[in-house]
Amino acid sequence: MKLSVIMPAFNEERWIKDIVLKVLAQQVDGINEKEIIIVDDCSSDKTRSIVEELAAKNKSIKTVYHSVNQGKGAAISTAIAKITGDICIIQDADLEYDPKDYNLVLEPIIDGRADCVYGSRFVGSQAKRVLMYWHFVGNKFLTLLSNMFTNLNLTDMETCYKAFRAEILKNITIQSKRFGFEPEITAKIAKKNYRIYEVGISYRGRTYAEGKKINWKDGIKAIFAIIYFSFTSNSRR
User: Fold this and answer.
1) Structural domain boundaries of the chain?
2) CATH superfamily membership of 2-230
3) At what angle do helices 16-25 and 47-57 cross, to 10 degrees?
4) Beta strands in the chain (DSSP E)
5) Which of 39-48, 50-59, 113-122, 211-220 is the least confident region?
């Protein structure tokens, strides 16, 4: 099976080389081929030059460059059109999420038990960095609200680590340009009654000084996204 790793990137010069090398080095049981699709979302630092250098050395890396900054959701949408794998996973271009967890996240799909798998930062025995309390509260609230509308029992709707059978993402049109992607994709796969699993993962969260980008404004927008996409009848919209 072939794995497609979708990696949106914006101003990640400090981290992106390390995470790309980690992804390339990670072995996954049942996966014999891998591609990384990096979408640079018009970075203003050295991210693009680093990505170009990495891609020149490894044919498994595909690159796309946005001419204007559009947001995480837009970058993922761009990448979806490029995937050629059987399974895909979303990987942030930093070190908050560890590719060593790929085996945990992908196993239910590889085994044929799941269509989608979420990697939860709030369950399991894996190590988690202790960080901002109100971010934790915000994440739990958004997950609760999402669950109320989707009738799912997720513990971490906002997680980056979401894996899918590739054909699922190819058949869903993503409307959200920024972090609204998370509640949008959750609402849309819930409506399709796909088999959704959740596994515990490790997490090394960043502070704002270390480059964290999501903020309270994105949380407010996520609330509206949860409500809007829950009441949108056509999941391909």
Assistant:
1) 2-230
2) Spore Coat Polysaccharide Biosynthesis Protein SpsA; Chain A (3.90.550.10)
3) 30
4) 2-9, 33-40, 61-65, 87-90, 116-120, 162-165, 196-200
5) 211-220
Q: Where does 12-68 show beta strands of DSSP type E?
A: 33-40, 61-65
Q: Is 233 exposed, middle or buried (0-12, 13-18, 19+ CB in 10 A)?
A: exposed
Dihedral (CA of 20, 22, 28, 31) sign: positive
pTM: 0.90
- pLDDT (tens digit, 9 = 90+) per residue, 82-120? 999 999 999 999 999 999 999 999 999 999 999 999 999
Question: Is 165 in contact with 189 (CB distance < 8 Å)?
Answer: no
Residues 6+ apart with CB under 8 A from 30: 1, 106, 107, 110, 111
Give me 150's structure tokens.
């989707």
Cβ 91 vs Cβ 7: under 8 Å? yes
Query: What rounded mean pLDDT belongs to the chain?
Result: 92
Using CA atoms of 185, 52, 209, 24 in order, give the dihedral in degrees to the nearest 10. 60
